[in-house]
Structure formats: structure tokens, C-alpha cells
């Protein structure tokens, strides 16, 4: 797998934008839970960096991203604290943050797949690595806020990550040009996520109203 310098730079730039956006949206959730400023900052860091951390722990890939790059903590924690100052205006940027969240999902997925591919892990583990990177930060946020994770009750999210990962890894498997394969996978994944938000597409729900007696 050969990754061009321009592609690496673009992916890293999108990653930084995504973790800032994730930290800021997590800060709003913290505000809804009336957390103090330290709680806001910690929730922002956990949400933005938690998926990658969980991936690295499960894969035994050390050091963790934020340990190797401590400035990620300053960036995400600072973004979360900055949100406190601009919270009153955030509702006007809702659509922008939905777009950034969708971009973050596909970017995190590709990065997670790349980590597992570099470790020469099996196909299913590579896809799982991408999904964990893309989705687990939000799950940790909701669990810390004592909520049912958004992943399990909203529009297509994990499914989008899986589709993105399969397309990306498939392009690598069939030796398609790396930049083209990544662009196709991310574009399809992003489009699918935005359509899911627009039309409220979701997986079938399991509803059980009986009892266990």
C-alpha cells in the first residue's frame, strides 16, 4: 500500500478538523448535562480520541495516538472549552457540524483501516478497526452521559462506517490506485451518511413488549 504525501496531508488535516468538531459537539452534550468545565474538557477529549484509543488498545498498537501526539489533548480539550464561550451561537452551525461529523466518520474509518492494514491483520479485523475508530468515541460519550448510545438509536452510522471500510479495503485488495480507492470509499460513505440524516434512514428496530416471566 503506497500512500502519497498529498493524500497523507489531506487525511491528517481532515482528521484534525474532525476531532475538533467532535470535541465541540461533545461539549454541548456536557452542557446539557450541566457538567463543570473540567467535565466539559474531559468529555470532549474522550469523544474525539476515544475511538482511536480503543482501537489501539484492542490491537496492541502502542503508543496511543494522543500519547504520541500530546498536542491532540490540548487541541480537543481547548476546542471543548472554547465551545462554552460560543455555545449560544452553536445552533446556527448545526448543519455544518452534521457535515463535519459525517466527514469525521469516514475519515476515522479509513485511518482505522490503515492502522490494521499496516499490522497485516485479517479482513474482518481491519473492518472492525475502522468501525471502532469511527464510532466508539460517540458511544463512550453517551455512556458517560448515562444515555443509550446514539449509535444504537439513530440514522445509519455504524453501517456507513462498515460500507466505507469494505469499499476502501476492497480497493486495496484489488490493487486499485490508492488515492482513487480512498476517494471513492469516502465519497460513497459520506453521501450515504448525509442521505441517512436527510431521510432518517435507519436499521430495523427490535421492539419487545413482553416479559421474561
Automatic annotation (TrEMBL):
It is found in: Cell membrane. InterPro entries: Gly_transporter. Signal peptide: none annotated. It is a multi-pass membrane protein. Belongs to the UPF0126 family. This is Trimeric intracellular cation channel family protein. It comes from Orrella daihaiensis. It holds the Pfam family Gly_transporter. The chain crosses the membrane at residues 12-30, 37-58, 70-89, 96-117, 123-144, 156-174, 180-199. Residues 14-87, 99-169 form the Glycine transporter domain. Keywords: Cell membrane, Membrane, Transmembrane, Transmembrane helix. Its main location: membrane. The keyword Nucleotidyltransferase does not apply.
Amino acid at each position: 500500500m503506497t500512500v502519497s504525501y498529498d493524500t497523507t496531508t489531506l487525511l491528517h488535516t481532515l482528521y484534525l478538523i474532525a476531532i475538533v468538531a467532535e470535541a465541540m459537539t461533545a461539549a454541548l452534550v456536557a452542557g446539557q448535562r450541566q457538567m463543570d468545565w473540567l467535565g466539559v474538557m474531559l468529555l470532549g477529549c474522550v469523544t474525539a480520541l476515544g475511538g482511536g484509543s480503543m482501537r489501539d488498545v484492542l490491537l496492541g498498537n502502542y503508543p496511543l495516538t494522543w500519547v504520541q501526539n500530546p498536542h491532540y489533548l490540548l487541541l480537543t480539550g481547548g476546542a471543548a472549552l472554547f465551545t462554552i464561550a460560543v455555545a449560544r451561537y452553536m445552533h446556527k452551525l448545526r448543519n455544518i457540524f452534521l457535515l463535519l461529523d459525517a466527514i469525521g466518520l469516514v475519515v476515522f474509518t479509513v485511518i482505522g483501516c490503515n492502522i490494521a492494514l499496516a499490522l497485516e491483520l485479517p479482513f474482518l479485523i481491519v473492518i472492525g478497526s475502522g468501525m471502532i475508530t469511527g464510532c466508539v468515541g460517540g458511544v463512550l460519550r453517551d455512556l458517560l452521559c448515562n444515555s443509550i448510545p446514539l449509535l444504537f438509536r439513530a440514522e445509519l452510522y455504524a453501517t456507513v462506517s462498515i460500507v466505507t471500510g469494505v469499499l476502501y479495503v476492497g480497493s486495496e485488495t484489488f490493487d486499485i490506485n490508492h488515492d482513487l480507492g480512498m476517494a471513492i470509499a469516502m465519497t460513497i460513505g459520506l453521501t450515504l451518511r448525509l442521505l441517512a440524516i436527510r431521510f432518517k434512514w435507519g436499521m430495523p428496530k427490535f421492539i419487545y413488549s413482553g416479559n421474561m416471566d
